[in-house]
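FAQ: What does the model actually see?

It sees only this:
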Amino acid sequence: MARFFCPLPLHTGDVLTLPPSAARHVQVLRLQPGDGITLFNGQGGEFAATVTRMGRSDVEVQIGAHNATEREAACAVHLLAGITANERMDWLVEKATELGAASLTPLVAERSVLKLKGERAEKKLAHWQGVAVAAAEQCGRNRVTRIDEAKSLAAWLAQHPAGTGVRLVLSLSPGTQPLRTAVQGHTHVTLLSGPEGGLTPAEEALALAAGFVPVTLGPRVLRAETAPLAVLAALT
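And it is asked to produce this:
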């Protein structure tokens, strides 16, 4: 059954007009009155719903029973990921959502090819959040990965001087420990990974000073968009 994100209050028995994005998807699928769909608003669980009216640009549905099922990972992983070039960042956002990331902060690192600020940053953020919504609809999650405002590592640390759980940084430097050793016993992980070319020595030193533990995924060097997904796959 088709699933749609509907960021509105949902209550069994209510009749409501779908948001424009969901309505367009229903129309593209050529659904008709009487057809069933699934709605979720990111607040927990999902609702059965039935299409009651198809307008020229709007769709009306009646909300049915609530299903409290959740498909979230036992370990909440928050990614602080260096912005990668072109469509690679879209791919990272999509796959991170499918693999259960709780949130993703695009990191404007010193070696990031794509630099964002102002209106361009706002548009990119909205685009990436849309990618996360579509991925959640497809994979069955009832909560959408939150895409936070892009910022530098220094700016992020200034806003998050201390955190819950363990902070990890993917590192190629000597003295790293295996991922599973570092996360043992933790259910809340903040993971820092760099862009193409990795974090600079100054950025890594800043992270270590803020309590990030350097970890490794093994002897191979993974691409910037692959490494954080490997962590998610291992933890979720």
